[in-house]
């Protein structure tokens, strides 16, 4: 069924992992008596418009016929073996976990606090380039929207936006004081510095694979970008992420960075960033983007003080929280409650689809 959803994606069906999970839930809940009912359940969940409804039946038939032929040919090739005891099928929760985190064992991973301790080197050899190009494309669009901000100064504009009375009157002097042509203006754009601060503590480990792609994508946009990772200590990784090749960037991060999967001390690390880099990087042409779940076990007073300083010094403060995409999520942890009053945009970011929905 999961392979069938991937097959539909190849034919321009925009299917998210949540919809795959809903389809599995529906199939386990509805008492199916025929292949037609199976098809109708999938069609009701996976089709979003009329054109997809018209194409679904043909694609459905095509896929399952090809799959049946492939299975039959494989059975013919295999030698006859003695019957083996049937393995216990994986539970629906395990399938959901696999959809969201790539796990396929019966054990369930839980996001937990990381109380402290030094970080460790991270092995990125298992990382693959799946969806990398899509992440780079979305990040490039997002960075282009964030790259400039309007200033109080204006410039002449050919678009009908804001009437410039002063320029219109001066233009009218050519015609004896008669205003014959209206002049318009628009704000000048100022180039923005982007600062990324990514939480790579133990509680964020489930999302590391996705967040690394986001950081790499922002660093490859050609904009003014500075990138930092933190857990119990802050570390600058701008140089490592400037590699042209994604694999080389992962190798450098694996070999040179030791902040991975350490304790969760957001307040201490933000205070460290403000102290060491604040004077050079933070001003009214800076946007600070924090990627973290907010599960801080460190000094809450330092977190509030640092967030207040950022809010006062920079143009915008954005916080992307992977947990915010979960149904019914509420920012009830102490770290998020302290930080929220100083955040301009609080958004979800846990997969490609949530990144696509980010609006700034």
Q: What does this protein look like?
A:
The chain is α/β, with parallel strands linked by helices and 360 residues long. It folds into 3 domains: 2-77 and 88-98, no CATH class; 132-144 and 192-356, Rossmann fold; 154-189, no CATH class. The chain contains 14 helices and 9 strands. The strands form 2 sheets. Strands 6-5-4-7-8-9 form a 6-stranded mixed beta sheet, with helices on both faces. It has a 3-stranded antiparallel beta sheet with strand order 1-3-2. It is globular. The two termini are 36 Å apart. Mean pLDDT is 76; it is low at 80-128.
Task: Offer a quick outline of the entry.
The protein is of the alpha/beta class and 360 residues long. The chain has 14 helices and 9 strands.
Query: Percent helix among the residues?
Result: 40-55%
Order of helices and strands: HHHHHHEEHEEHEEHHHEHEHEH
How many DSSP-defined strands?
A: 9
Q: Which fold name is given in CATH as the topology of the largest domain?
A: Rossmann fold
Q: How much of the polypeptide forms β-strand, as a percent range?
A: 5-15%
The major beta sheet can be summarized as: 6 strands, mixed
- Cα-to-Cα separation, first versus last residue: 36 Å
CATH superfamily of the largest domain: von Willebrand factor, type A domain
List keywords for this structure.
single chain, 360 residues, alpha/beta, Rossmann fold, 3 domains, 6-stranded mixed β-sheet, 3-stranded antiparallel β-sheet, 9 strands, 45% helix, globular
């Amino acid at each position: 069924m999961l392979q069938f959803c991937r097959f539909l994606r190849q034919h321009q069906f925009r299917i998210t992992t949540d919809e795959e999970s809903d389809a599995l839930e529906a199939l386990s809940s509805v008492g199916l008596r025929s292949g037609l009912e199976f098809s109708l359940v999938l069609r009701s969940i996976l089709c979003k418009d009329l054109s997809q409804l018209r194409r679904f039946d043909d694609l459905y038939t095509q896929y399952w016929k090809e799959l049946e032929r492939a299975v039959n040919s494989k059975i013919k090739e295999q030698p006859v073996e003695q019957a083996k005891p049937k393995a216990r099928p994986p539970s629906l929760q395990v399938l959901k976990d696999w959809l969201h985190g790539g796990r396929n064992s019966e054990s369930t991973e839980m996001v937990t606090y990381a109380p402290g301790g030094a970080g460790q080197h991270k092995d990125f050899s298992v990382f693959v380039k799946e969806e990398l190009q899509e992440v780079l494309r979305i990040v490039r669009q997002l960075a282009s929207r964030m790259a400039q901000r309007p200033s109080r100064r204006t410039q002449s504009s050919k678009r009908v936006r804001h009437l410039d009375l002063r320029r219109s009157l001066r233009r009218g002097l050519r015609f004896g004081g008669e205003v014959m042509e209206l002049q318009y203006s628009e704000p000048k754009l100022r180039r923005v510095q982007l600062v990324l601060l990514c939480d790579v503590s133990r509680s964020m480990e489930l999302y590391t694979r996705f967040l690394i792609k986001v950081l790499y994508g922002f660093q490859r946009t050609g904009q003014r970008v500075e990138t930092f990772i933190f857990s119990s200590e802050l570390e600058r990784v701008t140089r490592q992420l400037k590699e042209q090749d994604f694999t080389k960037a992962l190798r450098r991060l694996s070999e040179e960075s030791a902040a991975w999967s350490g304790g969760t001390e957001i307040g201490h690390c933000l205070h460290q960033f403000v102290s060491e880099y604040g004077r050079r990087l933070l001003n009214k042409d800076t946007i600070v983007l924090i990627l973290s779940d907010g599960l801080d076990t460190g000094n809450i007073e330092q977190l509030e003080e640092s967030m207040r300083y950022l809010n006062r010094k920079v143009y915008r403060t954005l916080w992307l929280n992977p947990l915010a995409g979960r149904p019914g999520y509420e920012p009830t942890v102490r770290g998020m409650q302290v930080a929220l009053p100083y955040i301009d945009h609080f958004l979800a970011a846990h997969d490609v689809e949530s990144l696509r929905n980010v609006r700034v």
